[in-house]
Description:
Elements (H helix, E strand, L loop, with lengths): L1 E2 L1 H5 L6 E6 L2 H15 L1 E4 L9 E4 L2 E6 L23 H13 L12 H5 L2 E4 L4 E4 H11 L7 E3 L20 E9 L2 E8 L2 E2 L4 H19 L2 E9 L2 E4 L3 H8 L2 E2 L23
Parallel strand pairs: 1-14, 2-5, 10-12, 11-13
Antiparallel strand pairs: 3-4, 4-13, 5-12, 6-7, 8-9, 9-10
Amino acid sequence: xxxxxxxxxxxxxxxxxxxxxxxxxxxxxxxxxxxxxxxxxxxxxxxxxxxxxxxxxxxxxxxxxxxxxxxxxxxxxxxxxxxxxxxxxxxxxxxxxxxxxxxxxxxxxxxxxxxxxxxxxxxxxxxxxxxxxxxxxxxxxxxxxxxxxxxxxxxxxxxxxxxxxxxxxxxxxxxxxxxxxxxxxxxxxxxxxxxxxxxxxxxxxxxxxxxxxxxxxxxxxxxxxxxxxxxxxxxxxxxxxxxxxxxxxxxxxxxxxxxxxxxxxxxxxxxxx
Length: 273
C-alpha cells in the first residue's frame, strides 16, 4: 500500500475512521496501517515532543470483539529489523500493577492512572468510603444495567498539569466507562491523545487486565472493548518502523529502505500526548 502525502494534506473534510478487530494485536496493526494511509501530518505545538511532527487520525472508533483471546501485546514477525512496541513482561509485571492497580506515585510523577482509579470517595449518606473502582464494582454487582459506572481519570485541574520537563502533560486517558451487557463486562475508554506505537499496546494490554480483574470481582464474563480518540497518532521517530510493519510506502518512494534498525525504548511513552 502507498501513502499519498499530497492528497492527504490537501484534504479539507473531517475523516472519522472505524476499526473492527478481533483481538488486541489485530487492532494495533489496523490502527498503525490506518494512520500511515490516512493520517494527517502536522507539527506538535504543545506538550511532549513539542517541535516534532506526528501523523494523526482525525477520529478513531475501535471495537475489539474478543480482547481476551490471542496475545495481550503485539509481536513483530521474524525478519523485520524493528523491535516490538512493548513486551508482555512489562505489561504484566510493571505497567498493570504499578500504573493501574496502585495509587502510589514515584518521585516527580504528577499523577498516575492508578492514583485516579483508586481515589477514595466517601458517600456521606451511607457513611462509606471506597475507591472509584470499588464503587464501580459494587454498583455493577447490585445494578448491572446501570449507566453510572464510569471511572473518571480526568479532572479540571489537568488543564495546567505539567510534567517533569515542565511541558503541559495532562493525562491522555480521560475515562473508563463500564457496561454490563449480555452477561459480560465491556469497557468504553476515551483518550484525548494517544501514541499508537509507544502507548497503545501497553495501555490496552493493561486495561484488558483491569477489565478481567473487574469482571472476576463482579462475577461475570469478560467482554469486548470500545476505544475512541481524536488524537491517535504516530510520532516522526516511529514512522519508519510503522512503514516497515505495515508495508506502507510513500507514493513517491522509489524503493524500500533495507536493513533499517529503529531504536524505540520498550515501555516508553505510555502516556505521551
